[in-house]
């Protein structure tokens, strides 16, 4: 039996491997895992360990880290043992301090650090530090509810709220974005905003009638709601923000449709997507485009890319399980998702309507609903309607659900759990614990590491002034040399010339992204061309063109979002490269350089407001007519003058003139116009990205000149003053020694909080 210990720290993103108590060092097949998140490689680990131990699968594995990471490891080991008959053994989990407690300790550290004016200046005035801290202590966690028409999206959200707040209406008419912020209050309040973000109505007590009215008003763009989300665990460090998204084919506001798609395409923040499917109408409503978009995001890789999409199969209570097993019905759902490119999907059966009735206040239900509620309680006490046993729950969540006590009434409590939504809520909480909290702690660590580094650098420089007179004279001579170099411009002109050479250059990764978008458009065109063949009736042609218009609008919005993501990626790429070059350029002159700040330029949306993808219906000059056989009839062929022909008959075709449309002709005309729109979109997107990069370089060049002179004067003046004024120098040295002790204590406390 081989023995290996795995120690994974998700806060510093470091992994150590120990064999027989000795750390595995050097270059080996496990080396590339050490600086990556566990979720990016845990699915590969069984095979890597098998190869590491020379094709021997008799391996005992112990793990030190967070429980959520242990569960992921356990699932992969069990899968390998089942599918490949390996003999991996995972030792029981040994608990470590929770992320919530660590985050609270970090908060305490920062509050303590604010009492030190010099250190506080690094937290406040350095953009890298302040941005990371803002992200670390932003408690809001986004979960977006996405669905096509008639999936029961509003009912699902109301079931999570425990009250009928959202009006039950056709999702196709839900034209606003409603964001629900979970609070501990008992009342729901709301603000209504227009598309410019201006408040139209504020702090209004909400009910379904008010929301219905707000949704119907054309100037309503977004509704922000604060109030309790019934079944969610209340955390001091996390506030769930549940967003009801408009459908992707929403016709009232094109930007809303694109925004819904952007939530799915947001692989940077990786928000949770709750995708609602109607179990009884699978494939009837057109999920295809949306599911293909989800599939693309999942294929980008990593366990988180898969975990952030939870497929919730609603209305499973409507199956007659005496005629069809729920497992078979869920297999059909999985097959449907796989058919749309989503491999091994996480599928959760629920009944939103049943949960809604069981959670709602009896006084708010009609007599018929109260009767139906009792029927549901009886139904969900039956074992075959225990939806929990059909869910891909982790062992941790399964244990929590089993012991969940929501209501004192035991039968109602069991029926409510079995209806599915409480387990989904716990999966949401597990996602928060597994991904959101560790990421935030990692960002807090990055911020404090940077601030500590800046502070150490400053104080070590001051402490280094504790020199004899001769050495101080040497320092002054070096300063004069720097001043002489500055008088010659520090070769700034040649450096700026090199920067200009970088203009009009799009990074390779962005070029590759644009090429991929072009290929995607070409593939779409080939697919459309293949389907637009043959002659059909006018109604059939119009139905085909209407469907085609929806598909093309979806593709157009997808490309806009991808170009927007490419633009943001380009900004980060160039910002990082320029900042690195800036540090290198002046590192031999200044030890402490103010962090390079470049404002984020506007996105693509304004560039593409005037683009229009519309496939018009058939026109009169496209309609042709022809004689077609519509049936047959029997006719007499007898002649009165020929008695031998009397009684003779024959079958003849019945014909009529019918109008038809050539699909190829209709598409060729429209396709040329629309293809021009797509080409313009890619071209203008590429130009926008290029110009955006040029603007950043121009702003950087201007910044370099201004910051260079300003920082030079400041540093030189301070150093000269401390060298030439003995009292000032001694005071700076003493203060630096004291600060270094304080900073070292701060660094040690941070390490203690984050260690596993």
UniProtKB/TrEMBL annotation:
Cellular localization per UniProt: Membrane
Pfam families associated with the record: Dynamin_N
GO molecular function, one term: GTPase activity
Record keyword Methyltransferase present: no
A single cellular component GO annotation: membrane
Keywords: Coiled coil, GTP-binding, Hydrolase, Membrane, Nucleotide-binding
Domain Dynamin N-terminal: 145-315
Main localization (coarse): membrane
Coiled-coil positions: 455-485
Top-level taxonomic group: Bacteria
GO BP term (any one): mitochondrial fusion
Annotated InterPro entries: Dynamin_N, Mitofusin_fam, P-loop_NTPase
Entry protein name: Dynamin N-terminal domain-containing protein
Source organism per UniProt: Acinetobacter gandensis
């Amino acid at each position: 039996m081989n023995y290996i210990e795995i120690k994974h720290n998700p806060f510093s993103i470091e992994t150590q491997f120990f064999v027989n108590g000795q750390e595995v060092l050097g270059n080996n097949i496990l080396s590339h895992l050490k600086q990556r998140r566990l979720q990016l490689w845990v699915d590969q680990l069984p095979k890597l360990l098998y190869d590491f131990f020379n094709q021997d699968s008799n391996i005992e594995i112990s793990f030190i880290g967070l429980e959520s990471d242990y569960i992921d490891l356990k699932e992969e080991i069990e899968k390998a043992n089942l599918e490949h008959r390996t003999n991996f053994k995972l030792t029981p989990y040994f608990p470590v301090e929770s992320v919530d407690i660590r985050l609270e300790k970090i908060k305490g550290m920062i509050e303590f650090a604010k009492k030190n004016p010099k250190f506080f200046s690094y937290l406040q005035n350095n953009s890298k530090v302040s941005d990371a801290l803002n992200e670390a202590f932003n408690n809001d966690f986004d979960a977006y509810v996405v669905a096509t028409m008639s999936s029961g999206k509003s009912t699902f959200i109301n079931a999570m709220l425990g009250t009928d707040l959202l009006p039950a209406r056709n999702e196709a008419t839900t034209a606003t974005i409603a964001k629900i912020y979970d609070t501990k209050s008992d009342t729901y309040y709301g603000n209504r905003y227009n598309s410019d973000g201006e408040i139209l109505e504020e702090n209004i007590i909400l009910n379904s009638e008010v929301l219905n009215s707000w949704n119907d008003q054309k100037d309503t763009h977004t509704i922000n709601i604060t109030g309790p989300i019934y079944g969610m665990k209340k955390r001091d460090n996390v506030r769930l923000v549940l967003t009801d998204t408009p459908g992707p084919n929403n016709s009232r506001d094109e930007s809303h449709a694109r925004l819904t798609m952007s939530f799915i395409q947001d692989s940077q923040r990786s928000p949770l997507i709750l995708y609602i499917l109607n179990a009884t109408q699978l494939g009837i409503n057109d999920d295809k485009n949306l599911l293909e978009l989800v599939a693309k995001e999942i294929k980008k890789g990593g366990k988180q890319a898969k975990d952030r999409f939870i497929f919730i199969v609603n209305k499973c209570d409507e199956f007659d399980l005496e005629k069809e097993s729920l497992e078979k019905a869920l297999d059909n759902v999985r097959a449907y998702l796989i058919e749309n490119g989503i491999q091994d999907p996480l599928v959760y059966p629920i009944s939103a309507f049943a949960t809604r009735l069981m959670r709602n206040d009896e006084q708010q239900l009609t007599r018929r609903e109260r009767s139906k509620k009792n029927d549901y309680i009886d139904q969900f006490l039956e074992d075959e309607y225990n939806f929990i046993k059909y869910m891909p729950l982790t062992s941790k969540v399964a244990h929590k659900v089993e012991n969940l006590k929501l209501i004192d009434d035991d039968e109602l409590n069991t029926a409510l759990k079995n209806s599915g939504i409480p387990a989904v809520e716990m999966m949401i909480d597990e996602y928060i614990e597994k991904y959101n909290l560790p990421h935030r702690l990692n960002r807090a660590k990055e911020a404090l590491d940077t601030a500590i580094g800046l502070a150490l650098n400053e104080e070590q420089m001051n402490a280094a002034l504790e020199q004899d007179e001769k050495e101080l004279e040497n320092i002054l001579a070096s300063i004069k040399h720097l001043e002489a170099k500055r008088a010659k411009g520090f070769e700034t002109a040649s450096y700026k010339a090199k920067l200009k050479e970088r203009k009009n250059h799009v990074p390779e990764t962005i070029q590759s992204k644009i090429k991929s978008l072009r290929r995607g458009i070409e593939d779409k065109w080939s697919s459309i061309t293949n389907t637009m063949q043959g002659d059909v009736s006018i109604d059939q042609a119009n139905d085909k063109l209407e469907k085609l218009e929806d598909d093309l609008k979806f593709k157009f919005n997808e490309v806009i979002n991808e170009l927007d993501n490419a633009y943001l990626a380009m900004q980060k790429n160039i910002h990082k490269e320029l900042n690195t070059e800036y540090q290198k350029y002046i590192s031999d002159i200044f030890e402490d350089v103010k962090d390079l700040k470049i404002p984020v330029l506007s996105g693509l949306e304004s560039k593409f407001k005037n683009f229009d993808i519309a496939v018009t219906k058939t026109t009169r000059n496209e309609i042709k007519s022809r004689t077609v056989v519509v049936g047959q009839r029997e006719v007499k062929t007898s002649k009165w003058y020929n008695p031998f022909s009397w009684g003779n008959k024959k079958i003849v075709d019945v014909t009529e003139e019918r109008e038809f449309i050539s699909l190829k002709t209709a598409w060729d005309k429209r396709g040329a116009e629309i293809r021009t729109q797509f080409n313009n979109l890619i071209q203008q997107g590429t130009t926008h990205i290029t110009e955006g990069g040029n603007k950043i370089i121009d702003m950087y060049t201007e910044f370099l000149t201004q910051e260079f002179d300003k920082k030079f004067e400041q540093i030189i003046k301070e150093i000269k003053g401390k060298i030439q004024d003995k009292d000032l120098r001694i005071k700076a040295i003493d203060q630096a020694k004291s600060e270094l002790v304080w900073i070292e204590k701060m660094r040690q406390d941070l390490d203690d909080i984050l260690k596993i």
